[in-house]
Amino acid sequence: MLFDGMDSPYRDRDHAGRVLAEKLSGMGLPNPFVCAVPNGGVAVAIPIARALQAPLRLVLVRKLPFPENPEAGFGAVTADGFVVLNHELVKAFRISQAVVERQKAKALESLRLRRERFGAGWTHLPPLENASVLVVDDGLASGSTMEAAVTSLRAQNPGALIVAVPTASMGAVRRLETVADRVVCPHIGRFRRFAVADAYAQWCDLEDDAVREMLRGFHSHREVSREN
Description:
- This protein is of the alpha/beta class.
- It has a single domain, classed as Rossmann fold.
- The protein contains 8 helices and 11 strands.
- The protein has helices at 13-25, 40-52, 87-92, 97-118, 120-123, 144-154, 170-177, 208-227; strands at residues 2-3, 32-36, 56-58, 61-66, 69-78, 83-85, 132-136, 160-164, 167-169, 182-184, 187-189.
- The strands form 3 sheets. Strands 3-2-7-8-10 form a 5-stranded parallel beta sheet, sandwiched between helices. It has a 3-stranded parallel beta sheet with strand order 1-11-9. A 3-stranded antiparallel beta sheet has the order 4-5-6.
- Strand 7, helix 6 (144-154) and strand 8 (160-164) form a beta-alpha-beta unit.
- The protein is globular and about 45 Å long.
- One of its GO terms (molecular function) is glycosyltransferase activity.
- Pfam families: Pribosyltran.
């Protein structure tokens, strides 16, 4: 469904996750395994993992920011060092290989610290062969970080690799359709101007402490479900 950004289709990330979970539950995915892109993707992924009774792990990705404008990025890198570049931006802004390597090194150090912060229990991935891997975030603007995550996960030869996001720009959806087996996105922005936050009536940045608390709650709920 296309939306113009005037009305927010989701109350918050949890609501968005429940909407996605309903759609994904009807797909009959064998051996579902949920990979969330933190931080915002965790809040969306938890309702999905619960609905599918699937394991949940984090896939750590960091954008490669412009040195002069850290809010904007020209690519992304995963914790295992896989890099995706927006070659049009690299060429247009004459970003040298030295700058790419410097920004990559900074991002990898940040990802190393994040891995320590969340712990190996949440960031270490088991073998994913024959799994239907769902890569979840709270939305896609350019799609660079998600492309890096998907391409990195592809190396593990999952049975299927599915991007599941509540909202995305049309350009990001088209980009991800070239690297994922399927993109599930209920609301796609139809205008050139796109912001992930526009899809949510309630939006805030999530801090690491809040994400860790969510993960603890998910783990406790999963343990209780197993006992019952």
